[in-house]
Amino acid sequence: NAGVTQTPKFQVLKTGQSMTLQCAQDMNHNSMYWYRQDPGMGLRLIYYSASEGTTDKGEVPNGYNVSRLNKREFSLRLESAAPSQTSVYFCASSETANQPQHFGDGTRLSIL
Amino acid sequence: DQQVKQNSPSLSVQEGRISILNCDYTNSMFDYFLWYKKYPAEGPTFLISISSIKDKNEDGRFTVFLNKSAKHLSLHIVPSQPGDSAVYFCAASEGTDKLIFGTGTRLQVFP
Predict the structure, then answer these.
(1) Is the pLDDT at A99 greater than 90, yes or no?
(2) Under an 8 A CB cutoff, do B43 and A106 touch?
(3) Which H/E stretch holds residue A22?
(4) Which residues contact A23 (CB under 8 A, 6 or more apart)?
């Protein structure tokens, strides 16, 4: 049972390039989330999807777009990467709101 | 403005003793609180949660205490083990999907 799988694990981009981070969960969860973790900042919510077909902004949505492709998959897109988006990105899922979220192992993204 | 604060960046505890990790929050509408543990190069792992209708929840060596009047949450680990060495995050929500995380406390358990 893989849980939450994120790809890629590492990526280096140049400023202005675009990229999609992929996330898939096999727990039949309804809700999925994207966070970023920066030093001294904890985890901050970028976007979330409470159910298939819906997405909502979190704390720090600027510069990102998301797609809930189906119940299993939730992708995060950077259209024009900026150095300020250098971070570790975590995807998570939960059965519903107010249930514990299960996290993937993260994507380490560096933007030069 | 940080709604969930973990004011101790690090904590060092001897194996077998109690570890107490603290968390303060400012939003009185928070009604669900969680603790996560994170090892390097891995995602956070859920440890224990508590809803605002309770003041204590216990799961094995882990106990979470909630003091709503003080807006304070604590995690007790008894007895502490070397495998507990990790970064611990508290998180809170107000009945929605949006979790607000603290900045984390690094716990080191030494022999």
Answers:
(1) no
(2) yes
(3) strand A19-25
(4) A4, A5, A6, A32, A34, A73, A74, A75, A76, A91, A104
